[in-house]
Write a structure and sequence with these properties.
289 residues; alpha/beta; Rossmann fold
Length: 289
């Protein structure tokens, strides 16, 4: 029986997995916004799993240093203690899910795969109107391997990770994310309420201003949820607002730093090709396994 490393149960443990130096730094800022005032009660691990085939041309230490440079710099800027984990892998998906599931983590943070934006329908929906279509992707489409008009809410890699991990996963759709100061949380149905826990963390650790959007009018009639919101208000007055607007305006979206949304509601937005998707700010899609 393999023993997991000893850790403090009260700790909030975040694992972030990135595939290039910039996204490592961005995810670290996000992890910091969720945990910054927790002092010793948090543990943040930044992980880079690199494909073995990329390794042969490099000195492995040099490659690792290059990958982690931004993360280390950012951790110094934020005065944040971070554990780094590097692995050369022949099966990234498998390694990532295995490490996530065995490490007693509370949250895994990853980026939405870039392949999603390149000339795909989703890319257009999200306002990433790159005209460049990845040639390899075109070739795969011709070979019948992929579908360039694929309407999936996630890239294949992310779908696999969501499917195989048994902890919450936060997937960042990155639109020049700086900090989670102004955050809005659309609640489409009762199963989205777990997002309030994350909103609460952002208020407690980052003094974030949170707007809860009662899209389906379900909060007004729900005593339990109103109670949660009231309890947050007592601890942090003027940090959480409930909107009952049905229509989401572009001006409103432009003013926000981050949207928190459930993986289920994200899928619905993509399925219905929601028009306001192209104006969303950076978005964290959070699953609730």
């Amino acid at each position: 029986l393999e023993e997991s490393s000893p850790h403090n149960d009260a700790q909030y443990r975040v694992l972030l997995s990135f595939d290039n130096p910039e996204s490592g730094s961005t995810l670290l800022k996000l992890a910091h916004d969720f945990t910054s005032k927790m002092n010793g009660n948090k543990s943040i691990t930044a992980m880079n799993i690199a494909p073995v085939e990329e390794m042969h041309a490099y000195d492995i230490n040099e490659y690792e240093n290059e990958q982690f440079k931004n993360v280390i710099d950012t951790s110094h800027d934020l005065k944040l203690k971070v554990t780094t984990l590097f692995k050369a892998s022949t099966d990234i998906e498998n390694d990532l899910t295995s490490i996530s599931n065995k490490g007693n983590y509370d949250l895994l943070l990853i980026m939405l795969g870039k392949s999603m934006y390149e000339g795909s329908l989703l890319g257009r929906l999200l306002g990433f109107t790159t005209k460049i279509i990845n040639p390899e992707k075109l070739l795969n489409t011709v070979k019948g391997k992929g579908n360039i008009f694929n309407n999936s809410p996630f890239d294949d890699f992310t779908l696999q990770i969501l499917d195989k991990t048994n902890i919450p996963v936060g997937i960042l759709v990155e639109k020049d994310f700086k900090s989670a100061d102004k955050v809005f949380v659309p609640i489409f149905n009762l199963s989205d309420f777990y997002l309030l826990e994350y909103a609460k963390r952002l208020i407690n650790n980052n003094n974030s201003q949170i707007i809860i959007l009662d899209v389906a009018g379900q909060i007004r009639n729900n005593i339990e949820v109103k109670e949660i919101i009231r309890s947050i208000e007592q601890v942090a007055p003027n940090h959480i607002t409930l909107y009952n607007e049905k229509k989401i305006e572009k001006e409103f979206l432009n003013f926000q730093d981050l949207m928190l949304i459930s993986s289920k509601s994200w899928k619905n937005l993509i399925d219905t090709k929601s028009l306001w998707l192209s104006d969303i700010p950076s978005t964290l899609i959070i699953s609730n396994p």
